[in-house]
Design goal:
alpha+beta, 235 residues, 4-stranded antiparallel beta sheet, 18% strand, 9 helices, two-stranded antiparallel sheet
């Protein structure tokens, strides 16, 4: 496509290169937006807008790194510029942006995948900004495939998430022990526990837990149907 544009505008090389640069910025922004779309579907803070802007900015910096000093080279007497300098700063600079979406909760780190996605989006945009369309787009598809597949088919620690479980039940040791056994059978690990007595007959248990991602609405309904004395469960 770029060669076709350059050939069509052979009489106006500056215009041809301007169109090529704008096309690279557009493709990079679209690729960043697609990666951000996957993140936004997971209700992450860094979504389409953040990834699009990161990609557009990284692609522009890559263009500046490669072509931004061509007009001063003859005046300075230098044969060529070191195009790696700005590119190297993009890699380290995006790391600070990714750190903003990483946080700690209940002893676990969250946001690492989104931070890695921002960093990789910048790399994709750098590739496209330098004219490497196929590697950049292939990397985007690879990132989407890995994110989608491993979200649906989790392995190891990725099979678990952190949730707060609240349950209101009859103040009876038998009911309480039965509920705790249900949680244990579902592989729930208790991190913190809070007990609140609502009245003489009812109590509320609140747990911060490490729980399997496949713990579902159907599991909650089954527990409540099995134990009518458990009147409320929220996850």
């Amino acid at each position: 496509m770029e060669k076709w544009i350059v050939n069509k505008l052979a009489n106006s090389p500056e215009l041809a290169m301007t169109i090529v640069f704008c096309m690279r910025l557009l493709v990079a922004t679209l690729c960043g937006g697609i990666v951000g779309l996957e993140r936004s579907k997971r209700f992450k803070d860094a979504g389409i807008r953040t990834h699009s802007v990161v990609a557009c900015g990284a692609a522009l910096l890559m263009l500046v790194s490669k072509f931004g000093f061509s007009d001063i080279l003859p005046l300075s007497g230098v044969k060529e510029a070191d195009s790696a300098r700005i590119a190297a700063q993009i890699v380290s600079g995006i790391g600070f942006l990714g750190a903003a979406v990483v946080f700690k909760q209940f002893g676990s780190i969250h946001g690492l995948t989104t931070a890695a996605g921002i960093w990789t989006t910048a790399a994709i945009a750098m590739a496209i900004g330098s004219g490497m369309y196929i590697p950049g787009i292939f990397c985007m598809l690879l990132v989407l495939g890995v994110s989608y597949y491993l979200h649906r088919h989790s392995f190891g620690n990725d099979s678990f998430t952190l949730k707060v479980i609240r349950a209101v039940m009859k103040n009876d040791p038998v009911v309480r022990d039965a509920f705790m056994k249900e949680l244990d059978d579902h592989g729930v690990t208790l991190l913190t526990t809070e007990v609140k007595y609502l009245d003489d007959n009812r109590l509320e248990l609140t747990f911060s837990t490490r729980i399997r991602r496949d713990f579902s609405y159907d599991d909650v309904i089954r527990i409540m149907e099995t134990y009518p004395d458990i009147t409320q469960i929220s996850v």
